[in-house]
Amino acid sequence: MPLSVESEGEQIRVRLSSGGLVSAIRSYFSKEKELGGEKLEKVWIGLADFTEDNWQNEEVVRFVSQLDFKIVPYFIDKSSYKDYYSGFSNSVIWPLFHYFSSIVDYQTSFFEAYVKVNEFFANHLNEFLQLGDIIWIHDYHLLLLPGLIRSAHSNASIGFFLHIPFPAYETFRLLPRRWKKMILEGMLGADIIGFHTHDYVQHFIQSARIILGLDNHFYLIEYKDRLLKADLFPISIDYHGFRKDAKSEEVKKLHDEIKQKFKGKKIIFSVDRLDYTKGLMERLDGYEYFLNHYPEWKENLVFVLNVIPSRDEIPEYSERKSLLEERIGNLNGKFSSISWQPIVYRYAHMEYNEMIALYRAANIALITPLRDGMNLVSKEFVACCISKRGVLILSELAGAANELSEALLVNPTDVEDVAESIQTALIMPAEEQARRLTIMQKRLEEYDVVRWVRDFLEQLTEIKHQQEIQDIKLLNQDGIRNIVLEYKKAKNRCLLLDYDGTLSPIARAPDDAIPSQKLKDILSRLAADKKNTVGIISGREANTLDQWFADIPLTLVAEHGACVRKPGEDWQYLAPPSQQWKNEIRNIFRSFQARSIGSFMEEKTYSLAWHYRNTPRDLGLIRSRELVNNLSHLLQNMPIQVVQGNKVIEVRISGYDKGIIALNLISELNPDFVLCMGDDTTDEDMFRALQNKAYTIKVLTGITDARNTIRSQQEVLPLLTKFLE
User: Fold this and answer.
1) 498 in catalytic set
2) In order of start, what are the domains of the chain with their CATH numbers?
3) Would you call 537 helix, strand, or coil by DSSP?
4) What's this model's pTM, rounded to 2 decimal places?
5) pLDDT digits (tens, 9 = 90+) for 521-538
6) What are the Cα distances from residue 473, in Å, to 34, 591, 620?
7) Which is the catalytic residue, given 285, 448, 498, 683?
């Protein structure tokens, strides 16, 4: 919930939550109101950590009525809430996704509570939702919810945003099989899935590919015949709001008081929630190293360390608090004098204006989390440096480091690096401070919180539009009649056809996919028409195509465009022969073949292919993703490429694909009718190359650049037959 309700005797105190999401969304709603954009009713729905009686309190009702959005709290029993929130959410997902796998508590009861609460949410929402609603689900507490809503509302507009890192596959896979599968399936119920950084997007896509066997085209993913998108949307702040507040009289007064209190001293400042991911102990180690190695700064600076209470009910957190305070006590005891202590520590929530004043007063903001999804404190500090003075020292492991690269980036575990950065910041010339801040401030101004929200919602609208286009692409009888009519009118036609999966069904072994007599008859009749050029563009070897179609005047393209043979001519070998890379790839393929029952290697003139069609599905998917990852690292900066086909991984020479050869053929022929059909990811090269130049048809629906789709390979020959009627 965006607020907390605290009881002190008979007194009720309401406080807005301090989290980045609450701050960002409130800023957006407020800004939209100023701009007159209140077209949609806004409702914030969440689990309450207060009682229904407190919710009815007059003070709470008055407070809520002044907000720019409605609040609908859901109440759940304490036992379920504890296992859901303190248990699975913050003792499993939070530590694992932040790479603290050693402290994850894999209790089945936690996951069961997590499922129960997500289902509780879905059941209530299903009654609440109306046609046309936009549902924006936030964060790791509700990873299952998008899929649960999708199952009841197939056409709903659902966005999901993860505010913490999504870990690399090697870390994510530590979850029990059922848990990680359900989490991915839940997230994939959304139409658009947002992350803070490119790395988080790639980690999610990789996990979805390996665990669920999904295909993707850049950020687009196909799941259950539905197109969705995973993309990066780095959350931002209300830049102009912070600038305005930093200039207010109240903040100026507090700023002056802080400066007076620490007169003659440089101020280092940090504010964090109490959390092991924030690197507080490591930060103190770096500060101690600094004091030991730069003793000239003793009594000339002070470190104001504010820690905000968080998750006190979780033992790990209360233990951290004790350790932190003991460490601070030791440091102050070691370095303090009668008139000075190096650390001013406070464990309490900060008032907003006081925090802004400290941002303004600080010479250095020391923000060094061990892991952080984004970290908005760093952005707030930069925005509040209205005098162009101040240096941000930021952990390179925070999501914000991708945008705030002009900060002094440090490894939070490297005490020497942290200490040297503090020294660099303290002696940095004013001109250099201003230069760095100016660049970062401009970036934050251009992509503020309003832009963040609008960007996400616009992308959600766009992906819904693309889904509609995918549905429209399915070729109906009227569409077929139009294509046939254009074919009849044309005087110079070109038909470019893939073989496996298009002209012939996919076989268990490549040698079994022999063309049927019916197919040969259709191709012969089409090729006999002098107006037609019929080409088969395949990944097959030249010898195989020769054996199958030697008696039909076809243009044959082998190995995805590496060699071509026109009717009555010899084969032209377009790609340069190169065998150096094959030995290494062959050994890798053999290794995977040995570990994957039913898989086999196929060697061609210009490529090597590893087939896993006959391997058990789960094993084949896992091994194929491992193989692609291995090859991607191995083949960097080499003139060869990895191509993922239908249950096959192929390594071939770069620069030769079906799209290039298709363009060359139609450039020579200059036809007034072009039909291109294929079923595989390798055929997408043709579809892209021939956009607006051909009728492109993908066999099987899904993500494609083809103009149209048909449902199955069984529809291909009947379609071609219509040209002969």
Assistant:
1) yes
2) 3-232 (3.40.50.2000), 239-446 (3.40.50.2000), 474-575+656-722 (3.40.50.1000), 580-653 (3.30.70)
3) strand
4) 0.79
5) 999 999 999 999 999 999
6) 42, 41, 31
7) 498
